Amino acid sequence: MQNTPTTTLGYALFATRWLQAPLYFGLVAAQGVYVYKFFKELWTLILMCVSGHATETYVMLAVLKLVDVVMIANLLIMVIVGGYETFVSRIGLQGHRDQPEWLSHVNSNVLKVKLATAIVGISSVHLLQMFVDVHHTSHHALLWGTVIHMAFIVSAAILAYMSGPMAAQSDRGHADRSAAGRSPGDASRTGHAPEEHQPEAPAVALPAPRRAEPVAAPPLARDPLARDADAEARIRAAGFPARKLLEDFDQNHPRRFDHETVARLGKADFVTARRNVVFVGPPGTGKTHLAVALGLRACQAGHRVLFATAAEWAARLSGARAAGRLDEELAALDAHPLLIVDEVGYTPFDAATAALFFQLVAHRYERASLIVTSDRPLGRWDEVFGASAPALTDRLAHHAELVRLDGDSYRTRRTTSAWAE
Q: Are 340 and 310 contacting, i.e. CB atoms less than 8 angstroms apart?
């Protein structure tokens, strides 16, 4: 139990981050100044060209000035939006069609590297201006301009080199803290200990969770995930039954398939936004393939993922309940921002097991993400979860992307084609 005065003091200190908000609005005003400067320079250039007084050197220098203003404005945008998102409060642009690509994975390390890169770009423009106007620039200014520019390049390279190990160490530290907070029994339930330590589920006769063998990484040229050792470790720990990529999905097979939604989900922004994904369709239409592929993308984005079938999750939660550790199990699963529940609907559950699934969904509601695959629409989940279905589907679908896949079984189609040949 936390000390209330200490907690209050911590909340008060955390609230002081809002003191930075006016600073970012001040930078917005500075952005307006640069907009004014840009159009002033542009208007001057137009007048000089129309009057015929603009030489080639003048036009080149004027254009470089415009580029310089735009790059500084870009730097301001990154500081304003990225800094506010990182240090003050979430903006909540996940899913917005105009969300910048870099904002989906922004953090302090990424922000520092991007700012350093932007400064190098601005310095490059300034140095180019000096060389274009070399006849009016002293050798002393050229020398120091080059030295300062090289210093920026070296600093950015060092910062980029250091940010990788720092991010990996942060991710490993998070995993170590999560593991330290669990007892050995908890570790066995999260799949990092031999199966013989897992408590059996006496309440229901369900298949024991299967242990997926580590999937061998394909060649580096094919799978960029293999280049990231930390992502590879997360993939192996996730328990995927096989390695499936979005690029390998046969998009022409399902008769109805929302390509744009799946492509957007492939950015893994839904995990950061704590949203859910539900794939619904007949057997063999690629639901598990897409669920695993999104899980791989989430691992690549730095998130810990755990995969199991609905029957396996039922056995796991039933075992935790039988051991009197259900609350601890649900809390331990919080270390995984994304859980994947495959094959909902293939095995109906009794009321007690359905209640466990409701507790899982309710516990993660607006706190973490779920990917669920099912052979039937949410309106028919009462056939699987009985009386728990309405409350369960209400929480699952509230912040969810529902992707419908229609078509014949891909496996059956391939088998039929093989017989035909």
A: no
Residue 123: C-alpha distances to residues 42, 61, 78 (Å): 21, 15, 17
Q: Where are the domains positioned within the chain? A: 18-176, 183-420
Which residue type is seen at 211? R
SS3 content of the chain, % helix, strand, coil (to 5): 65, 5, 30
Amino acid occupying residue 226: A
pTM: 0.49
Q: CA 366: distance to chain centroid?
A: 16
Burial of 382 (0-12, 13-18, 19+ CB in 10 A): middle
Residues 84, 91: contact at Cβ < 8 Å? yes
pLDDT in tens, 121-174: 888 888 888 888 878 888 888 899 899 989 988 988 887 777 655 555 544 454
In this structure, are residues 284 and 412 in contact, taking their beta carbons and an 8 Å threshold? yes
Residue 403 DSSP SS3? strand
Give the chain's residues under pLDDT 50. 1-2, 170-172, 174-227, 416-421
Are the C-beta atoms of 186 and 325 separated by less than 8 Å? yes
| Per-residue exposure over 179-211, b if at least 16 CB sit within 10 Å of its own CB, e if not | eeebeebbebbbbeeeeeebbebebeebeebee
Token couple for 327:
């609350």
Q: Helices 389-398 & 351-364, crossing angle to 10 degrees?
A: 20
C-beta of residue 261 within 8 angstroms of C-beta of residue 403: yes
pLDDT, tens only, 341-378: 999 998 899 999 999 999 999 999 999 999 999 999 99
- Considering the domain 183-420 in this protein, what is its CATH number? 3.40.50.300
**Using CA atoms in the order 102, 104, 105, 107, what is the torsion angle rounded to 10 degrees?**
90
